[in-house]
TrEMBL record:
The keyword Coiled coil applies. InterPro entries: YbaB-like_sf, YbaB/EbfC. The keyword Coiled coil applies. Keywords: Coiled coil. One of its GO terms (molecular function) is DNA binding. This is YbaB/EbfC DNA-binding family protein. It comes from Nocardia mangyaensis. Residues 116-179 are annotated as: Disordered. Residues 1-28 form a coiled coil. Residues 129-139 have a biased composition (Pro residues). Residues 150-161 have a biased composition (Basic and acidic residues).
Amino acid sequence: MDNLNNAADELSRWAEDLERKAQRYQALHGRMSEVSVTETSADGRIGVTVDANGVTTAVTLAPAVRGMDPAAVAGELMACTRRAQARLRERVTGLVHDLVGTDEAGEAIVGQYAERFPDPEPTPAEQGPTPPPTPPAAPWPAATASDVLATRKPDRDRVVAPEEPTEEDLFYQRRSWLQ
């Protein structure tokens, strides 16, 4: 009888523990649905906001963007997005550890965010000066004049003229399409 009471108490504690864990995960879900992160370019002309899934929800472009090279704008948009997603990963990791601790499910969430949103690659400005580019190697040897002449078609200098116009051509040349 004592073993039965101990088993019932243990089952009751296990159920209470599951209920507390479920409440913590519900709180985590609620807090994560409110998370958004905004990153801005160093010059303040471009801003990107991502939601809890890392999806871009807002893009802000200052009027000074008009004169920028479109490739530079696109590159900065992507850099801001990657930085925002990396900061999102950090915020979610903090929320998971604060609300649910370091259990297996919490660590799985953290691992998914770490896999999806790695640290962004440093931009050229953050890396410092770049070495001068090396000239590219020639993909094949330069052609000589004899190579060019050898590949030329033999009848290229022949002049081809149209035939004399036929009676039908002359008839339609004198007509207007309006007639």
